[in-house]
Give the backbone structure.
Amino acid sequence: MSLTVVGSIAFDAVETHAGKRDRMLGGAAVHFALASTFLAETRVVGPVGDDFGDAEYAVLRGRGVNTDDVEHVAGGKTFFWAGRYERDVNVRHTLQTDLNVFETFEPKLSPAARDADVLFLANIQPDLQRAVREQCAAARFAALDTMNLWIDIARDSLVKTIGTVDCVIVNDGEAKQLTNEVNIVSAARAIIAMGPRVVVVKLGEYGASMYTADGVFGLPAYPTAAVVDPTGAGDTFAGGFMGFIAANPDAPVDDALLRRAMAYGTALASYNVESFGTERVAALTAEEVNARVAALAELSRFDPAPVELRA
Amino acid sequence: MSLTVVGSIAFDAVETHAGKRDRMLGGAAVHFALASTFLAETRVVGPVGDDFGDAEYAVLRGRGVNTDDVEHVAGGKTFFWAGRYERDVNVRHTLQTDLNVFETFEPKLSPAARDADVLFLANIQPDLQRAVREQCAAARFAALDTMNLWIDIARDSLVKTIGTVDCVIVNDGEAKQLTNEVNIVSAARAIIAMGPRVVVVKLGEYGASMYTADGVFGLPAYPTAAVVDPTGAGDTFAGGFMGFIAANPDAPVDDALLRRAMAYGTALASYNVESFGTERVAALTAEEVNARVAALAELSRFDPAPVELRA
């Protein structure tokens, strides 16, 4: 039940309607791992600079994240992202992106990281994702995320990489852009045609849907009235989803398992947005996670008994 | 189990990626009634002109809609709307709106229409909606829809009318605009504060959610890859939803009943988009409706059994 995630480790500056933070722990691999460690031991592979210190490691290790594969680049600075969300948090403006040590990142995986049972390739350049996938050839289940930038400038490589994984986890805009489809269902089918057998489409405040050969699964988002900061929600979702698969090493990754994984991803992501950055998930308890999964099951339950209709 | 709907009866000209129709039966009350009659006897209150003839009545009566309260305005022309959808059917352009007989419409309800057990006020001017609500004071359950125009130019009247109904059924943009909230959950709560005890928010391809004092219910849309024409989907949803309530005259309108109503609304709306205008719903069978309700229940089902987490 070992899980390896490769992706960004960052400092974020974020401003939302609820306040601001000038410098806080962030990055896709960090958000992912803080969620996935609830379910499975997780190794983070990613670079940091000299400015990444004990306080940041303490957050990761406090949740039991394995940081042995975090690469310290001497003399370097950690990836930095600054953004501002409008009152409607669906509208985000990137104010600053300093790649720093991430600019020359070439993932080097320890033997333990390569032995991962489950692998998540967070949003990085698709050539690098594919190189990592080749190093983790034995992984039982591998998934990737991506972003509009790679669809724009490295689509061929991305499609090639997609062909090497079991699952793609993207948001609806990315799914449509990648496939040039305007309908989510059609877009998901087009991605499956590229190779993966599972496509998860994240819909933000509308929830998430999953497409496989067995059909479609849809889950509304947990109804959160007070979204403080959505940064990292998608990675937190992926952490819960992949963590659940890693937590069940002997179970077939079938439709029933994947549906439960969707629920854990959705539950964890719903907590992520309640505070800035990693603050809420870092303080989360196991009971809270299971309670929200139970609430999600209740949220969409109804009696499907057929009624007599007027023909 | 009688249901009265007051609203537009129209001819629509529609162009989508799938083709075009120059003149077909449409209007909110028509789409609503073709769906609701699967569940309860439905009277349509609305005006038509001399151009509304046997062919149109045949579609309504073919589904068992009661047309006794359709008002024929001698010398008038029926409401006409023309629109074009982009390849992404979420983007709609109105090309022409001829109110015609609808411009001077003042709803006159027969005693039978006034005796309705359940009342739906489709999108018309809110003063008119309130006048109808007063004529149907005994209705056990009343709901209204509205549109951005009335929020813009008649908000005070609309809020007053909202205070007289049990339920508001709007799309997410309207809910946010009406309440000046940016979050659907907050917007729904703000509408409940205006008086209704049920708020249904239609989310198009993302499904629908319902807010009551008992909490939140969310249902994904049925995954339709081939959307031909979304015109009337929201009214068809309302027809299924209100029809289900009307079909259960002796049952309390509680959370369990409302959830089943949401499923029937969602199922019927999913069929509506599969063909132009009323074509698909007018040809629908009872078995197809119940089959899709069952499919919807399966769509969002997962095992919520808690798992042991790493604390």
